[in-house]
Amino acid sequence: MNKEHWNNIYEMVSAKPIINAIGSVTMLGGSTPIPEVKRAMDLADSSYIPLIELEEKAGEFLSDFIGVPAAYITSGAGSALTLATAAIMAGDDDQLIEQLPNTDGMKNEILIQKKHRYWYDRCLEAAGAKLIEFGSEIKTTEKDLEEAINAKTAGVHFTMYEQNTDPNALSLEKTIEIAHSHNLPVLVDAAGQIYPLENFGKYVKMGADFQCIAAKYLGASQSSGLALGTKDMIRKISKQSFVGYEGRRIRGIGRPHKVDRQEMMGVVAAVQNWLTMDHETRLSNIEEQSTTLINILSKCPYIEATMIDNIIGHQPFGVKISIKKHKLTVHDLVNLLKNGSPSIWTRVVGENDFIEIHMFGLKAGEEKIVGEKIVEIFE
User: Are residues 190 and 256 in the same domain?
Assistant: First the structure.
């Protein structure tokens, strides 16, 4: 294949590249591995290695580097949630491990605050667990959790969003305190809680038995993630994983959750880079891109563009776009951008009446293309 074909790799199969103005979303590819990750993956490609050993050694390296008891590389944060759920239901019992997702005869209920129900809690059910809500849509109390615990309870799940904490939800501290008083483990979905750096592994350090991180946010491949936790939890996760399936010849549910050796070393490189990089410069560059977009949009009298001031998590800053005094709606704008040339993908979340543009998926300079295209539509 010649150079011209490689430059048009998607066109070769009649697929159309787009400009990703949404951010790190799975349906658009999730991430672009950073140079450090690509180099690590290339080097890992040079030889074979027993993956049961690599999982163990890479996990030990990462746990020391992050400062948590144990770590395990998974095929994404969702995979980590499924494996952890299986781990707390089946434990060390090989017969139960092979029985999943059939949970007959084992504790199979995972408690979750009604306020914490979200799109990805399906990952827990994939292991065979049953999600039991406690609390209400308005408030969750300690009593709600206490009363929800019964003989079928296997653990408690907590969804963490540091950028938007809910004062009416039961806190993680209280959740851990109550769950542990009943000898129940606590699982935390903290997939995007990677900045400030003290949040990286924070919830395990607080006493949670497990937390997951999506490695795509660190510049690794989108099909990779991290399970952090106690040594006991990570040991049980390893028994559920694809290397446990092949290495131990015990057929756990994790066989489809495969991670290759290149991805594992890519995650190691991504974590090393993230925890040592200059984040002030990173944030400054993203803020500058956002400011550039706002300045371009200020030329259009029908657009109100404001800076998103969040710097917590994986998608800092960005631009909030609203439409004023014009017949076009934000949904119209999304469709016009998507169907234009180049195709620019944005979205309206839920019942919002605005669009959020994030820089995570934009190459340098593409914020100008996005801004100019929006102005052109209104002109």
Answer: yes
| Band (6; pLDDT cuts 50, 70, 90) | low
Domain boundary among 233, 253, 276: 276
Q: Into how many domains does the chain fold?
A: 2
State which residues form the domain around 51. 35-276
> Do 324 and 264 share a domain, yes or no?
no
pLDDT at 269: 98
Rounded to whole angstroms, how far apart are CA atoms 310 and 47? 43
**How do residues 175-222 score in pLDDT, each as one tens digit?**
999 999 999 999 999 999 999 999 999 999 999 999 999 999 999 999
Beta bridge partners of 305: 321
Can you give the CATH number for the domain in which 285 is found? 3.90.1150.180
Instruction: Say whether the peptide bond before residue 342 is cis (omega within 30 degrees of 0).
Output: yes
Are 309 and 330 in a shared domain? yes
CATH number, residue 255 = 3.40.640.10
One domain for residues 284 and 305: yes
Write down the pLDDT at residue 315: 94
State pTM to two decimals.
Answer: 0.94
Q: Which of 331, 359, 336 is nearest to 347 (CA)?
A: 331
CB count in 10 Å sphere of residue 43: 12
Other Cβ atoms less than 10 A from the Cβ of 165: the count is 10
Nearby residues of 193 by Cβ (< 8 Å), 6 or more positions away: 160, 161, 162, 199, 200, 202, 203, 213, 312, 313
Whether 15 and 65 map to the same domain: the answer is no
Q: So what's the pLDDT on residue 5?
A: 53
CA distances from 186 to 16, 61, 200, 210, 374 (A): 43, 24, 17, 7, 45
pLDDT of the residue at 10: 87
Where do we find the tokens 């200020």?
298
Q: Is 151 found in the same domain as 137? A: yes
Position 7 scores a pLDDT of 59
